[in-house]
Design brief:
Strand order of the largest sheet: 1-2
Structural class: mainly alpha
Radius of gyration: 15 Å
Largest sheet: 2 strands, parallel
Number of domains: 1
Distance between the termini: 13 Å
Shape: globular
Amino acid sequence: MRIWSIHPKCLDTKGLVALWRETLLAKKVLAGKTKAYRNHPQLNRFKEMIDPEGGVDHYLSYIYEEAKRRNYNFNREKINWDFEFMGLAVTKGQIQFEARHLLAKLKKRDPGRFQSLSLLDHFDPHPIFQVVDGPIEDWERI
């Protein structure tokens, strides 16, 4: 499971579809509707929120908007749109780690996107994240 801290606009088609699917799974986990992945470290930051399910819905809303921008047909009904706007902190080290991780994936499966993204000085975070100084997050599996 990879719930990216970087902006969904950076992901290729496979990455965006996987993010949608995996975040919907995360939503089920946080709602107690599945026993799989209950202790997955990627979920720790959402578990710490006042409203973890609302936080995931907020996160999903940006994935949905990116999919809509690309004319993909993601199911809007999968999101409870009655969430409050929330934010989370993410470290600069985590963003940099994820950028390298994504570039390694794209080098193989989408060389064109790899070329354009490899020219960036920095990657924007997913809009619910505020970047703070710090190393890779302790929940990240390296």
